[in-house]
Amino acid sequence: MFIIRTAAAVLAAALAFTQITACTATARDRSTGQVIDDSALTARVKASIAQEQGVNAAVVNVTTYRGVVQLSGFVESDEAKRRAGQAARDVEEVKEVRNDLVVAPRGGTGASGG
């Protein structure tokens, strides 16, 4: 009986430790709360970019990791790239913006439709 109780206690402790560490952030991973915060920040940045004149928000990809926002995709002009970056910077809680948008050459991105 003692062995069963001891085994049950060890198993319960292991499960409790697993649940605690699963919700805790490490240097490389994010906690559940950080993932949710980053998702909400991504949505707010995307909405801010959508309000900018001359920027097609549908082609701007927004990714957030621990408050750092990365913009990627193709835009039509340097001005659209600048406006998208500024719209992202203006969102509260954004720590940094990495504006990796590329200005597409006139006539599209070079992909053929056929």
List the helices and strands and how they pair.
Elements: H1 2-22, H2 32-50, E1 60-65, E2 68-75, H3 78-89, E3 96-103
Parallel strand pairs: 2-3
Antiparallel strand pairs: 1-2
Distance between the termini: 73 Å
Order of helices and strands: HHEEHE
Radius of gyration: 22 Å
The share of residues in extended strands comes to 15-25%
**What is the average per-residue confidence, as pLDDT, rounded to a whole number?**
83
Describe the global form.
elongated
Number of distinct helices: 3
Low-confidence stretches: 110-114
Q: Strand order across the biggest sheet?
A: 1-2-3
Helical proportion? 40-55%
Largest sheet: 3 strands, mixed
Count of DSSP E strands? 3
Classification by helices and strands? alpha+beta
Q: Summed up, what is this model?
A:
The protein has 114 residues and is an alpha+beta fold.
Verbal overview:
The chain is an alpha+beta fold and 114 residues long. The chain has three helices and three strands, in the order ααββαβ. The chain has a three-stranded mixed β-sheet. It is elongated and about 80 Å long. It starts with a helix and ends in an 11-residue tail after the last strand. The C terminus is likely disordered.
Keyphrases for this structure?
114 residues; alpha+beta; 3 strands; elongated
